[in-house]
Fold this sequence. Notes:
alpha+beta
Amino acid sequence: xxxxxxxxxxxxxxxxxxxxxxxxxxxxxxxxxxxxxxxxxxxxxxxxxxxxxxxxxxxxxxxxxxxxxxxxxxxxxxxxxxxxxxxxxxxxxxxxxxxxxx
Length: 102
């Protein structure tokens, strides 16, 4: 078993989750992805617009993306994180929070 402290595991093993047959991409889909995106690795951060952004969001982005990029060895020029608000809870969202980012 690999633990977080174990630095001998390769990055793919350290980021692996359980494998689901329905979530495995076919060779054709992987080839199409490579054709369209090249070697760019994109991540997405979708906070809900129901509060101001805070240091916890920055910590989450760093933990989820920067560390994953590093563990996978993605060169800086091939990293891209998309930030956009999700509107999955319209009753709780407020444009004041979105406008606070400007």
